[in-house]
Prior knowledge:
alpha+beta; Rossmann fold; Dna Ligase, domain 1; D-amino Acid Aminotransferase, Chain A, domain 1; globular
Amino acid sequence: MSATSRPFHTLLVANRGEIAVRIMQTARRLGLATVAVYSEADRQSPHVAFADRAVCIGAAAPRESYLNVSAIIEAARSSGADAIHPGYGFLAENAAFAEAVTAAGLVFVGPPAEAIRAMGNKAEAKRLMLAADMPCVPGYQGASQDDATLLAQSESIGFPLMVKAAAGGGGRGMRLVRDAAALPAALTSARSEAAAAFGSDELILERAVIAPRHVEIQVFADTHGNVIHLGERDCSVQRRHQKVIEEAPSPAVGPALRGRMGEAAVRAAKAIGYVGAGTMEFLLDADGNFYFMEMNTRLQVEHAVTEAITGFDLVEWQLRVAAGEPLPVTQDQVKLNGHAIEVRLTAEDVPAGFLPQGGPLLRWRPPGAGRDVRVDHALEEGGTIPTHYDSMVAKLVAHGADREEARRKLLRAVEDCVLLGVPTNQGFLAACLAHAAFAGNDVHTGFVDAHMQAALQVAVPPQHVAATAALAASGMLSSKGKPASLARAASSIVLNSAGKAWQITLWVTTDGWRACLRERGEEQPQVECTLRVLRANGTNGTALVECDGVVYPLVFAADKHVLHLFQSGHAWQFELHDPRRRRDAGDADGALQAPLTARIVAVNVTEGERVEAGQALVVLEAMKMEHTIVAPFAGVVVELPARAGGQASAGSLLARVEADAVAKEQA
Length: 667
């Protein structure tokens, strides 16, 4: 490939959120002007304010904005941009987009369209890698996609096996199938999710490698024929095949294995004429055998851990390579320093199955400067987390001399990070980092299933948190918390949290309060504690509360009838009890409500139809994931407001099922 000098001066970032800000930070340092694009839902987003100028490219739905190629090209023309960086997600691995950028006379900061196209389809990528002598998992990646062919191929591959979307990644369209009986349903659901996420329902089959590590190699290539690798990252802690924690280097990879994997990755990149940043992803078994899975032809979310241990700015390298410059180092100049670990902070309801969430951002306090961590985000207190895009809202990265130092730093930083307004996976992340198996390097892709089931359950707030919530609900944390501001008579309040109703009675004492807590409907003896408010600031929502002689700093905020309280690394939600509202509404009376704001992808039943318990009624899609609403019991669909193609707000009624005579008789 001939080297071509393509200097540019103004960079448009065709993405949003934290990655848009991160790219613009480097561009600004290099003296480039920056242009942001935004949807109507992102008009107030920090990435818009961070850029030198910004252009609106359409409505909130990604297909009308961040996936709208013509709108992005026109935004570049109107803003004077002469280069486009796609970030990750959206159009980052879209060959047609890369071609459109080049055809418009602009510099595409990424690999050639031919390389994107070659590696963008898992089936074609696997065929190319086999030709390049890359170790691959046995499977089927043929053109015939009918069920009969896939069922026949599965018998020769053997079970358990993986069904994967040929056109995508991120765990979407991926299913683990343990036996032949489960394969037809897995094919149907994988096709549906793949078509919605990637516009293609093509699938491949692979033999499942049980309890492997997910290890990837960062490669970089320039237009002068130079290709190197920057070591590996371990991305084994996952849920629903999506990465949760990433680290570099992998604790399971030594110098010899790193050399073999790196050489294979570089050889493959050269075989497809690759340019720019790319990642070869592998499964690594317990015997040190590695198998190619896919190549991501873009910058990865987890690139920050590689930057931490190499000292290189990978976005700077992308920009320089796109301008025609050679790589700044050779392979023997790449040195790995210490250890780095990253977690992905997501707006998700973990106990509800990691359901994506959106809503107001009432409080945002990233870890303090003394925590020695990198925080990549585009959050602003008082803003909103939209439901139209990926649920990841921030990344926290810690670097240490060794793995244990990095782990300790990151755990403390996660516990120090405050995000109130929507549920997040913060407590789950802290539990993962603190778990003895993670600390002891007992990690594989089944880590969450093997070790973290308790962390997936609804957590009940401790008594001092519930008592403090009662103080906040009574207005005692919005001022300086003086006892005189509360009536001398006992004051009682009911708060709902974690599926439980707490009745909390407060009495004023000479220097604070006495709180009595009882779970409503339970015969358990009540719990009492003594509270003092040492400091409180209602404006910024901070307080220092002493409970039975122990002092706790906390952050709080209120939104409508919900009180949000952060304490000791956990965010708790307390709903003010309203006796007019039925607490058993929902599944108990067959009313099925949307668990989140989402698009209604499919309605599988009609009003008046009889259904069985567990039958899929409505399919929702939000933040790139599908969510199926099922019948809570057998009966008849008596109400069906849901309409395919429509929008459902969180809490809105989708369907109502009533038990019929047959169901009642069976019960």
